[in-house]
Structures are given as structure tokens and as C-alpha cells.
Design a protein that fits this description.
The chain is of the alpha+beta class. The protein has a domain of about 240 residues: LCP protein (Aminopeptidase), CATH 3.40.630.190. Helices cover about 30% and strands about 25% of the residues. It contains 8 helices and 17 strands. The strands form 5 sheets. It has a 7-stranded mixed sheet with strand order 1-14-7-2-3-4-15. Strands 10-9-12-13 form a 4-stranded antiparallel sheet, with helices on one face. Strands 5-6 form a two-stranded antiparallel sheet. A hairpin with a 4-residue loop joins strand 3 and strand 4. The longest helix has 29 residues. The radius of gyration is 45 Å and the shape is globular.
Amino acid sequence: MFDDDDTDSFHLADGEPAPVDTRSFSVPAPEATAAYPPADPYPEQQPHHPGPPPRRRKKRRPLRWLLLIILLALLAVLAEGLILSRSFSAIDRVDTEDALAPPSAAGENFLIVGSDSRENVDPDDPDAGAVGTVGGERTDTIVLLRVEADRNLMLPLPRDLWVPIAGTGGEQRINTAIQGGPDRLIETIETSLGIPVHHYLEVDFSGFKGLVDALGGIDIDFEHAAFDTKSGLDVPTPGVHTLDGVQALAFVRSRAYTERIEGSTKVDGTGDLGRIERQQQFLRATFSKATEVRDPLAINRIANAVKDDVRIDDTMSFTDAINFGRKLAAASPETVELPVANATRGSAAVLVFAEGSEAALNRFR
């Protein structure tokens, strides 16, 4: 019988206590369940978080853009170099090695000659008549350009300057020396003026025209309206005018330069000296605009425009030409005037050295 008062044990019927099973036992653990709180019954409506969010990488776009810009700049420089190198290799060479002076660390003189040659003038060019019909070859423009480390000097030489002509035993106008070839002109300048010539560059008139047009014209400031019926120059008003190739040639070649001043006309009576001043204006304007060009396509256009109308000495390397251009871009040439005086030789009106000419020549020696 069970004892209602005994809650810890129970007895058998005869009063003997029932044996207690002392073997240990355990309640089996419930099956593993999802972590508390229980999963949402609509898991598809919850965002999925497989773990902590990944670390965001720092953006490197500015660096990539910088590298891209540097790469494009290098490619542009390379393209410019290749274009220039290819055009430079196509330029005609003149065998002047025996006449040229050896390189000098103090500075080098470039003899720049504008020739009257009509060899490369296209007869089908509608402007061909603007360059004239003078027979033979004569130097119409002669300029010595000295390039030094920190300055550039420019000395225009009058074509009517009367000097001993090398290899002839006689005297004549300096512009006739080219008839014996570039060597004779170089030797004449070296012996008669005492100036060493390190490099030679020759451009004929069609080359001048092509160069100016390739540059998009050059700007010349005119104090007065001007014209020359012989060269074809026609500047209707004073002020800055952008001259194309034809008008630039007419300006450089003008020997009957006439200005319109307050309703009347005035012919320039300075002759070759006034012409030299106009050539200086032209050269400064051309050098200034040419050295500003950086676009490879524009450089290629300019190079193609003049490559058939330019001749250089056979010692000038591509590096020499690049350095020459860089130095011109760094400092505009200072013009040095050569003092001369009017004279006659026979029946010819010429120019001769005047007081102070030696000092001017010494700056190029």
C-alpha cells in the first residue's frame, strides 16, 4: 500500500521498503535547434548576412587618371619626335663639311639664306607669279643667327654689301656668292667678315610661302597703310595684319616700299636698309610663331610644307635641329645692326662697312 505521507519512497505490501535503483541516468538532450530567437518563418523576406561585410577598397581612380595622363603625354612626345624625325630625314642635304667651322661650346652661328631660286615653284599654283621671274640664283635674304646658352643674336646682312668673293680674286655684292654654291658663300662670310659658320640652312621663296601658310599666317604691325606694285604688297590700313604666304613674300622682297600717310604717298628712300628692317620683322614673327607650335599634327603639316624647299648642311643632326629649335623658343633673337654706308663701285650703287661695323661683327666671332 502506498503511504500518503511518504513522498520519498514507497513500500511493498508486507511493509518492506522497495529497493532503490541507484544507477545513474540522464535525460536525453533535445535535438539541436536553430539559435534563439527562432528563425523567421518567412526567411525570403529577410536580408542575407553570411558574415561580416567585406572591407571596402580605397578608390585609386585619381592615380589611374594621373598615370593615363602621363602615358598620353609620353605618347604625344614620342609621336612628335617620330613625325619630326621622319620629316627631318627627308630634307635635302648640302655638302658643306669642308667649309663649315668646327663646333664651338661658346656658341654656334647658323647661316640662314633665302634664295631667289624658282626651281620648286609649281607653275600651276595660282600664286606662282607672286614670286617673280628673276633668272639664276641669288641670295635675297642673308641672316646670321648666333645661338648661345643664354641668348640668341641675329645679324641681317645687306645683299648689296660689297665684299671680296672667296675663290674669285675679285669683289662683288655678297648676294652673288651663292652662284658658286653654298661653300663659296660660307667661305666669303668667313674670310671677308671673319665670322665662323657652323651650320647652313637655305630656304627658297616657295618654301617661305609654304611655311607662312602652314603657320596660319604671321602678324606684322604696320604703322601706315603700305603697298609695292612691284612685289605685290597691299596693306590697305595701318595696324596689325595677318599676312599669308604671298603677302609675306611681298613684304620681305619689297624694294619700292610705299606708305600712305594722310592722303599722300611716301616711298621708302632707305633702299636695302629699309628692306633689312622689314626682313627682321618677318623673321622675328616667323620664329616666334613657329616655336609656339606643340601640336604633333600641326608640326607634321609645317614640316611637310617646307621639306621640299629647305636644304641644310650635311653635318646637322636631328639632335642639333631639336636643340636649335628649343633655344630659339627659349629666347627671341636680339637684332644686331651692321653699320654700313652708301657707296658706288663703277656705276653700281652698293653698301660698304661703316664705323662701328667691326664691333657688330665681333659679337658673332
